[in-house]
Amino acid sequence: MSKNILDNLFGSKPRVKLIKFLYRNYPRGFSVGEIAHRTQESPTTIRQELSILRQIRLVNKTRKRP
User: Fold this and answer.
1) CA 2, chain centre distance (Å)
2) Of 43, 2, 35, 33, nearest to 17 (Cα)?
3) Which residue, 3, 18, 21, 43, is the most exposed by fewest CB within 10 angstroms?
4) 33 and 43 in contact (C-beta within 8 Å)?
5) Average of pLDDT values for 21-45?
6) Element housing 4 (H / E)
7) How many CA atoms, within 13 angstroms, populate the side-chain half-sphere of residue 63?
């Protein structure tokens, strides 16, 4: 499938990268910083995209256990 099609379908390249990253690494949890580093996107962008994905209940926010 063409990357352009995915970008158009999901709204942005960072969102596509984030969804692919989370799908490939399910069910492991990650911090925003770790996702940003591994997807080569800024933490701000990742936070914004995660917020959108949480609103549509595609991902859940969990707290890291000590």
Assistant:
1) 19
2) 35
3) 3
4) yes
5) 94
6) helix 3-10
7) 2
Residue type, 12: S
**What's the rounded Cα separation, in Å, for the pair 23 and 26?**
5
| CA neighbours closer than 13 Å in the CB half-sphere of residue 61 | 11
Six token digits for residue 6: 């995915």
Give me the mean pLDDT over the 18-30 stretch: 92
Secondary structure (3-state) at 2: coil
Residue 16 is encoded by which pair of tokens?
């596509």
The residue type of 18 is L
pTM of the model: 0.80
Residue 61 pLDDT > 60: yes
Written as one letter, the residue type at 45 is T
